[in-house]
Description:
Strand content: 5-15%
Oligomer: single chain
Strand order of the largest sheet: 9-10-11-12-13
Structural class: alpha/beta
Radius of gyration: 22 Å
Helix content: 25-40%
Number of strands: 15
Distance between the termini: 73 Å
Amino acid sequence: xxxxxxxxxxxxxxxxxxxxxxxxxxxxxxxxxxxxxxxxxxxxxxxxxxxxxxxxxxxxxxxxxxxxxxxxxxxxxxxxxxxxxxxxxxxxxxxxxxxxxxxxxxxxxxxxxxxxxxxxxxxxxxxxxxxxxxxxxxxxxxxxxxxxxxxxxxxxxxxxxxxxxxxxxxxxxxxxxxxxxxxxxxxxxxxxxxxxxxxxxxxxxxxxxxxxxxxxxxxxxxxxxxxxxxxxxxxxxxxxxxxxxxxxxxxxxxxxxxxxxxxxxxxxxxxxxxxxxxxxxxxxxxxxxxxxxxxxxxxxxxxxxxxxxxxxxxxxxxxxxxxxxxxxxxxxxxxxxxxxxxxxxxxxxxxxxxxxxxxxxxxxxxxxxxxxxxxxxxxxxxxxxxxxxxxxxxxxxxxxxxxxxxxxxxxxxxxxxxxxxxxxxxxxxxx
Length: 431
């Protein structure tokens, strides 16, 4: 019976998380004054501060000795993190490109845990090097029940699970360490950021496509506007994605310096282009200097588009368990790489001592090919640079891209045509 109830609850959650919306892209309309839309916080306050919660939802849950309970949950969580069902493992076995609906699998663990068990009351317990607090258990379990009842999100549950078990929360950008920005409908207008404590660096703010975009004083307004246009276009074919991105508090943190270490959340991260956002990350990042707008021409990749592809994977595909994608992407990637269709001359920023190998190419294949498809500019990528080229030379990835991203025309980097010489070459010095 419990198993049947759980399956019904999961199905209900999936239907709630995929409600659709729409957004019209425009740049020359008057907009009403921005209004704030309340968003879930990353903390959860139990109704009864010192007692197990969720009893009304799961009355058949059984008490389990504390240490046994914690170890069971930690072991189940570790199994999810090492679930290699959809991974690509290099022929040598030395490197891995990870993929799969990990957030969905975590949710299954959380739901099974809270619906069937709870620990014996404790104040604090030390397991290994970490002290685990009763209050953190209450917050985690309440977050799971809030997600079941529709008053919270699975992301909240995953964040608070990390805090409770000290599980994969040791980096500075973990969302538990930062309050989220409020979501404000801005239209195509950059406004002053309402920055949470510790994030005062971000003074500029705009939203679009369910995504918050922020930057410091050093980031030009044009960069925020360009990022917004890209996000709105990328999500236009699947507007239901926007609701999921918004519910999961997806934020793009733009920077305009050498690397991400200038941002308050990422002082120990040195990524020059940026990185994507996962379910427990505070934001994704992108170098504003690498974006393209009028009188700021940049021929090549676009970090907002590239990292948003990864972010949609990690926050949307993972949540809805998009197995159609996971079952296909690496086979397509390997085939494209091995037959020479995909150019592997790009350089991915890696930690010192690491070298590029096929797992890096396979792991980046999806983001690079979608990036080229969205930009649709000859010469901006070494391969997969236009839709016509992709459809002709790599039809399998073209079918996968067009399953999720728009087919309607879009003019990326408006005005760059004036500098085009042909054969994928541009002369940006030409008057």
